[in-house]
Design a protein that fits this description.
Helices cover 25% and strands 22% of the residues. The chain is an alpha/beta fold. The chain has an eight-stranded parallel β-barrel, surrounded by five helices. Strands 17-16-21-13-14-20-18 form a seven-stranded antiparallel beta sheet, with no helix packed on it.
């Protein structure tokens, strides 16, 4: 494998705290949303002040910022779009992600110095469509999740080399074509195509025959219905070389509505995986990377459609989440031989803690001694946000996470 453009680790940022975590733990670029026109209303998102702070922090650390403008705006929203786009140009974001044709035209008009990225919502599954968007001024297209690596490779071969290809590498998968779903809107009135998805595909369902109202028939072996629409999560950390070989430049981690912890762990893991690949493309991903990705809340992992149409990539018995670790505390400093923590969840003296330091392999700390903020010896840390001190022979980077395995 040779002559490939250095790949980019692209991480989600649901708010300023998560943006800083993504930057600190290994992102090359982050994607986020303003208060309008983004596809994740459940995330806190960025007002004007936080947008500027976030862009400044990212740029200071050599990280790019891409802003989603990928809803399908209705007539009454269009008059607000120019001012929104101008505000993004004003704070010098690096790129804007759009899917609606009219919005794309307005991005080119009001943000001429920002890159145009065409969202997965556009459903790009062939090279002609990719090339058409390039002719409209796109610097990047996001490949539809239904594509195999073979199909992506053909798009790469038949489009200008200046056009970047971004593809999802990790996270939740929609059950609908290119994430365009009507389930939520039909069942709850919450429009998934306007950032307000109710996650209807994660609900439990039963089968009822038309003329026998009220009689439900199980379509799995449980009495709780079926999660027939519940797609497994994507994980391609072990297959970075194959994605690069297919022509993927930007490796996108899903999860703007997910936690600070998820953001930090996935950014750190994919940074480790990418650095290992760049050091030696023929070597397998380090085992610690895969171990890390199993320490976040996730459904069973799959490789999606990348190696062809999957025989079964859904979890039918439950919502599928695995939660094996919780955050004990976040490192806030180091003083006189003591690591300072802000407590997140109770832990006890003698407990083994797993420490994740930015851009590093995790390591273990045992709380043989522990003290409160005033220096009093304690046997447990029971109060959220309290300061806890742990003896340790060296400083640990501020923002590091101490975790514990859940029972």
């Amino acid at each position: 494998m040779e002559n490939f453009k250095k790949p980019e680790v692209l991480c989600p940022a649901g708010d300023l705290i998560r943006l800083k975590a993504a930057v600190d733990f290994g992102a090359d670029a982050v994607y986020l949303a303003g208060e309008e026109f983004g596809m994740r209303t459940a995330a806190t998102n960025f007002g004007k002040e936080d947008m500027k702070k976030g862009v400044d922090y990212a740029h200071k650390n050599g990280v790019k910022v891409f802003v989603t403008c990928n809803t399908l705006p209705h007539n009454d929203e269009i008059p607000r779009l120019p001012a929104f786009l101008e505000s993004l140009a004003e704070v010098c974001v690096d790129g804007i992600i759009a899917s609606d044709i009219g919005t794309i035209g307005m991005v080119k008009k009001y943000c001429p110095n920002q890159e145009l990225h065409v969202s997965v919502q556009s459903g790009i599954v062939n090279y002609e469509t990719a090339r058409a968007f390039y002719d409209m001024g796109a610097k990047r297209i996001v490949a539809a999740r239904e594509l195999s690596l073979e199909e992506i490779a053909e798009i790469r071969a038949k489009t200008p080399k200046e056009l970047d290809i971004e593809a999802f590498t990790h996270g939740a998968m929609c059950v609908s074509f290119s994430a365009r779903c009507l389930l939520s809107s039909y069942m709850t009135g919450r429009d998934a195509n306007r950032g307000d998805c109710a996650q209807s595909c994660r609900w439990s369902y039963s089968l009822m025959e038309k003329t026998r109202e009220g009689r439900f028939y199980d379509i799995t072996e449980t009495d709780k219905g079926t999660y027939i629409l519940n797609a497994d999560d994507l994980c391609m950390a072990e297959h970075i070389a194959d994605m690069v070989r297919a022509g993927v430049h930007s490796f996108k981690i899903e999860g703007r509505a997910k936690s600070h912890y998820y953001t930090a762990v996935t950014a750190n893991a994919y940074r480790g995986a990418m650095d290992a690949f760049l050091a030696n493309p023929k070597e397998p991903v380090p085992q610690w990377v895969m171990d890390e990705l199993n320490k976040i809340s996730h459904r069973p992992y799959s490789t999606g459609f990348y190696y062809g149409r999957p025989d079964n990539s859904q979890t039918y018995l439950n919502a599928g989440y695995m939660r094996d670790y919780s955050v004990a505390g976040i490192v806030t400093g180091y003083d006189d031989g003591m690591v300072l923590l802000e407590l997140k969840n109770k832990f006890l003296k003698g407990q083994e803690l797993d420490c994740l330091e930015p851009r590093s392999m995790p390591f273990t700390i045992v709380a043989d001694e522990m003290y409160d903020g005033e220096g009093n010896a304690i046997d447990s840390a029971p109060h959220p946000t309290m300061t806890v001190k742990l003896p340790y022979p060296r400083p640990i980077k501020v923002g590091s996470l101490l975790r514990m395995k859940t029972e």
